[in-house]
Amino acid sequence: MQEADFEKSENFEALKGLFRKELELIGEDPSREGLLKTPSRVAKSMLYLTSGYSMDPMAVLQSAKFKEDYKQMVIVKNIDFFSLCEHHMLPFYGKAHVAYIPNGYITGLSKIARVVDIFARRLQVQERMTTQIKECIQESLNPLGVMVVLEARHMCMQMRGVEKQNSITTTSDFTGAFNSSKTRTEFLNLIARD
């Protein structure tokens, strides 16, 4: 869905009113020229950034599920994502690296990236998002194992609070075959390559 389509959302007008009020509360004049369209823009933006609530990530994977007798690691790495921290509603962004070992079924590679986007387009914490991606793939495809690593920069740590500009948070979660340190090490070595 494109941002322009969000004007048709049942919540658009209510959000627009809230953002207009927010401008007033911080001491701005929402009727000045530069801010006239800001409540509308912010409402559309917020509806887009949280559009993952209305999407079913398991259905995405199931829509491109194919029988295949391949039992080696499948990795989709460097998937860019952007999300909003649920504590401050500030962005965190980075890369997702996802691997699974098929057990009779594979999915379209783009569907892995779509699953990352769906969970990213919700108010999130990085730890939960990592686990949600892993669990979705595990439940949808029933592979021999899944591993997910997220690396992200958090604006709530860069713009405010401790103001640490160069910090990167890494989270990981895994199931099945990835319980073996040898398999995890293979995955980590493969995602480290450029």
List the helices and strands and how they pair.
Layout: H1 12-25, H2 38-49, H3 57-62, E1 65-67, E2 74-85, E3 91-101, E4 105-107, H4 109-120, E5 123-124, H5 126-141, E6 145-154, H6 155-158, E7 169-174, H7 181-192
Parallel strand pairs: 2-5
Antiparallel strand pairs: 1-4, 2-3, 3-6, 6-7
Helix pairs in contact: 1-2, 4-5
Walk across the major sheet and give the strand order: 5-2-3-6-7
Beta-strand content: 15-25%
Q: Output the helix-strand order.
A: HHHEEEEHEHEHEH
Work out the radius of gyration: 20 Å
Low-confidence segments, ≥5 residues, pLDDT <50? Answer: none
End-to-end CA span:
32 Å
Outline:
The chain has 194 residues and is α+β, with helices and mostly antiparallel strands.
Give structural attributes.
alpha+beta, two-stranded antiparallel sheet, elongated, 39% helix, 194 residues, single chain
Can you tell me about this structure?
By secondary structure, the protein is an alpha+beta fold. Strands 5-2-3-6-7 form a five-stranded mixed beta sheet, with helices on both faces. Strands 1-4 form a two-stranded antiparallel sheet. The mean pLDDT is 94. The protein has seven helices and seven strands. Helix 1 crosses helix 2 and helix 4 packs antiparallel against helix 5. The longest helix has 16 residues. It is 39% helix and 24% strand.
